Amino acid sequence: MEISELGEFGLIERLAKEITTKNASTLKGVGDDCAVLAPTEGMRQVVTTDLLMEGVHFDLTYVPLRHLGYKAVMVNLSDVFAMNAQPRQITVSLALSSKFCVEDIDELYAGMRMACEKWGVDIVGGDTTASLTGLAISITAIGEARPEDIVLRSEAKPTDLICVSGNLGAAYMGLQLLEREKIIYNEQVEKARKSGSKEQMELLRDAQPDFSGREYLLERQLKPEARGDITDALREAGIHPTSMIDISDGLSSELMHICHQSRTGCRIYEERLPLDYETAAMAEELNLNVSTCALNGGEDYELLFTVPLTQNDAVSSVKDVHVIGYVTEADKGLALITRDGGEHQLKAQGWNHLKP
Amino acid sequence: MEISELGEFGLIERLAKEITTKNASTLKGVGDDCAVLAPTEGMRQVVTTDLLMEGVHFDLTYVPLRHLGYKAVMVNLSDVFAMNAQPRQITVSLALSSKFCVEDIDELYAGMRMACEKWGVDIVGGDTTASLTGLAISITAIGEARPEDIVLRSEAKPTDLICVSGNLGAAYMGLQLLEREKIIYNEQVEKARKSGSKEQMELLRDAQPDFSGREYLLERQLKPEARGDITDALREAGIHPTSMIDISDGLSSELMHICHQSRTGCRIYEERLPLDYETAAMAEELNLNVSTCALNGGEDYELLFTVPLTQNDAVSSVKDVHVIGYVTEADKGLALITRDGGEHQLKAQGWNHLKP
Predict the structure, then answer these.
(1) Residue B327: which residues within 8 A CB-CB, separation 6 or more?
(2) Chain A residue with minimal CA distance to B55?
């Protein structure tokens, strides 16, 4: 169905029907000039926002809309967890070009609802409008935390242990894989077109690339998970991080934020960078340095945090958390100790959309 | 200066330097994964968001960036005032194509800061990213109100008076004026190019259209003001509206929202539609029906609200507020009484970007 058949209000009504709110703090969701919230007394509130643009942040030739919706929500929840807060509400704004039909938007919203349901988050408002070009998705997330639970980037102290959750570089490898298949596919289409073979073209239309053995990389790229399970586990283990950030632009870049804002240095060990087997195998195949991918790949959506040295035993026993180094005085700089014992200064080559 | 010279983090740092926060409820603004707020105890919070896309919501050939920034903030504050709340914080996300330089972004932010300063609002976060095409601006505004002060769209009751602030249709006329001048200018450029006259081209480059006598229309289009002064005045006069909405898509459309959500009808009078002299003169010149412009023009950012009939005297004495009709039972429908006494059903021809 064409979106123009429904119009803006029709589309909003259709989407709103599927949206129910569950949080006690959500008094009124979609349907007025503003949503109305009743923040929990004594709690702090955290707010974050992300704007995703087609062609810059996602490529619809290989990203299913349902996955895109899921990811768009998760990247915002990841920021909320990085404050050690619980996400409660989001608003969603979409700008749609005429190439999208109503069913596309249903898919996108289905993915967003799935991500919200996973963490008990309410969709409380938004804006739906036209775009002359591609799709734009803007999400704002609101979360809550007790004042004493909030973790900033700026409170890391020398001797603190540096920890990361999960593993690094897999999402970046997933992107390389998808980009490679896209190029191969386009070349085949071009070839078939030149040869004029209708049969060949039809075969290509239904062709599905073989990603077997690489499913994990694709999942990390297409369907990332915000690590609220890690902040839960730390709380249960009685661990309060001194600083925390989520890894969206690559470990190096995020570590530089923590050190810069905490006025410290750091020392991390290449051999301790957590890697998945598939990441390593794919890096080998693509002739890439796997450590560089882990340090600068981006889109990991893992948590990078620091804990006091005294919590070494406690943090080491938390599942899926890895100690990769420690915080130093600022004058020691940001050091990466390579496998051969060499010392290098960390550089942020992280994702930076505005750099040429 | 090219934005790429600064990069994303450099640009954020440059913008953040100019931003100071003033609200007691803003504990931490730009600079971490999330902003941290301390909502005032016992208060409700309202949240609204808007996404503005170049080519759909604004045309940079005639909209100065400083005005655009101001307007982008004001349209969100307008939604906060329409809940009878006070705006406190906003987040700002920008997607920028390579045609913009750092000074452009400075201008855009200068306009946003000016709008924020006017209403004591803090910029607490955002996202800055690249765009393959035009400019996208996504703003989320957060406000506060006492629970008993909040006004929804859904509580209008039969016999309530229907009121609007300011006057209607002026912003729409301003847009017509700008669009007309753009066409004339483009035609002149085309003509000069065909004639090959360099002199003519240079004259055109510095040409400024003569808008004298039309300044008010331009101001309403380019620099709208959210009507927090009206909600203040109503509070001072002891008037609590039963329903309220801001007029962004045109009076007809907004009135339909109130009647639909309140399950009522309405009866408004054409002769009571508040019009500015310039609006009427411009409509005459363009051969447009001025009432149609007032009903469906859009972008007025005035407030439409209802008050109990018993407050007729009180509301009539509030400056810049006009009673245009009253609320009826739902079965009476939505009626416009024309100057000649005829009765017409109201139709929403309001701005609907997703309609063909």
Answers:
(1) B156, B157, B158, B159, B160, B161, B162, B259, B262, B264, B265, B266, B306
(2) A132
Residue A274 and residue A234 share a domain: yes
Q: How far apart are CA A150 and CA B205, in angstroms?
A: 55
Q: Which amino acid is residue A194, in one-letter code?
A: K
Chain segment B87-117, per-residue pLDDT in tens: 999 999 999 998 999 999 999 999 999 999 9
Chain A residues in contact with B48 by the CB 8 A cut-off are 33-35, 91, 125
Q: Is the entire prediction scored with pTM above 0.90?
A: yes
Instruction: Of B23, B29, B24, B17, give the one whose Cα is nearest residue A49.
Output: B29
Query: pLDDT of B49-77, one tens digit each?
Result: 999 999 999 999 989 999 999 999 999 99
Verify whether the Cβ–Cβ distance A33 to B82 is below 8 Å. Answer: yes
Which of B15, B37, B49, B150 should be substituted to probe chain A, the one whose Cβ sees the most A Cβ atoms within 10 Å? B49
- Antiparallel, parallel or unpaired: β A334-337 and A264-269: parallel
Q: Which two tokens stand for residue B215?
A: 């300044």
Query: Which residue's entry shows tokens 């586990």?
Result: A233
The interaxial angle of helices A102-118 and A65-81, nearest 10 deg, is 30
Q: Which residues of chain A have pLDDT under 70?
A: 348-356
Structural domains of chain B, count: 3
Residue B353 counted as domain residue: no
**Closest-approach residue (CA) in chain A for B4:** A355
User: Do A7 and B246 lie within an 8 Å CB cutoff?
Assistant: no
For residue A267, give its domain range: 161-173+220-345
For residues A133 and A7, state if they share a domain.
Answer: yes
Paired residues of A127 in beta bridges: A93
Q: Residue A47 is nearest to which of B4, B34, B355, comparing CB atoms?
A: B34
A353 is a domain residue: no
Nearest CA in chain A to B150: A36
Chain A residues within 8 A of B83 when measuring between CB atoms: 32-34, 36
Supply the pLDDT for residue B233.
Answer: 98
Considering only the beta carbons, identify the residue of A47, A94, A96 that sits closest to B125.
A47
Substitution target in B3, B5, B33 with the highest count of A β-carbons within 10 Å is: B33
A213 part of a folded domain:
yes
On whether both B21 and B71 belong to a single domain, the answer is: yes
Residue A350 lies inside a defined structural domain of this protein: no
Kindly report the nearest CA distance between residue A135 and chain B, in angstroms: 11
Smallest CA-to-CA distance from A160 within A264, A36, A291, A32 is with: A264
- The Cα A344–Cα B205 span in angstroms is 54
**A191 and A338 both lie in a single domain:** no
The dihedral region occupied by A165, where left means phi > 0, alpha psi between -120 and 50, and beta the remainder, is: beta
Contact B95 A125 (CB under 8 A): no
Nearest to A11 among B41, B53, B354 (CB): B354
Q: In what order do the strands lie in the sheet with A44-53?
A: A122-130, A86-96, A136-145, A44-53, B35-37, B26-28
Reference A307, options A228, A230, A242; nearest CA is A242
**Minimum Cα–Cα distance from A91: chain B residue:** B49
Alpha carbons B203 and B219: distance in angstroms, whole number: 26
Q: Which of A8, A82, A95 sits opposite B53 (nearest CB)?
A: A95
Of the candidates B11, B33, B136, which has its C-beta nearest A82's C-beta?
B33
AA letter at A119: W
ipTM over 0.90: yes
Coil, strand, or helix at residue B328? strand
Q: pLDDT at residue B80 above 50?
A: yes
- B356 pLDDT more than 90: no
Q: Are residues B81 and B91 in the same domain?
A: yes
Query: Which tokens is A339 given?
Result: 């496998």
* Domain identity same for A81 and A210: no
